[in-house]
Each structure stands twice: as C-alpha cells, then as structure tokens.
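note to self: dont lose this again. the chain is below, predicted strucutre after it. 94 aa total, dont forget to put it in the shared folder this time
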Amino acid sequence: MDHVLRITLPKIRWGLLYGVILCNARVMGEFGAVSVVSGHIRGVTNTMPLQVEILYNEYDFVAAFAVASLLAILAILTLIAKTLVEWRSRSAIR
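---
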C-alpha cells in the first residue's frame, strides 16, 4: 500500500485534483437529475439550485437572490481553482 502512495499518487495528483474540481462544478449546477430522480422531497433531497427554485416559487426573491449569489461565488471560486490547477500542472510538466 505504501508504494501506491509514493509512486502512483504523485503521478496522478493533478489529474485527480482536476477531476475533483470538475465534479464539484457538476454537482453545484445539477438541477434536473436531483429534481426528477430523487423525487424532490423538500428538506431531504435538496441542492442549491433546487433551493433557488423553491424560494423563487414562494416569491421570496431576496432569499432566492442571496442563494443564487452564493452559488455564483462558489462557481467563480471553482473556476479560479481550475485555472490554478491547470497552470500548476503545465508548469510541473515542463
């Protein structure tokens, strides 16, 4: 097991981190699958995009805007992290 951590993990580090970032981006924006597959059970199967929809449908526009703004900030942070990982992986290859 030790050889896996010393040999394999350093070689796949950037790809693994990039995959985690892309999965995070996918999860933050997921709407349809959660709404359809999970049954849209309020308070149990909820994501931020679904919460924005719930708040908007309840005419709570201020709260919907606040959650949407937080989601946008998280998306921007994810893009920054993605850019940094791409930059670091390119410089590590050279």
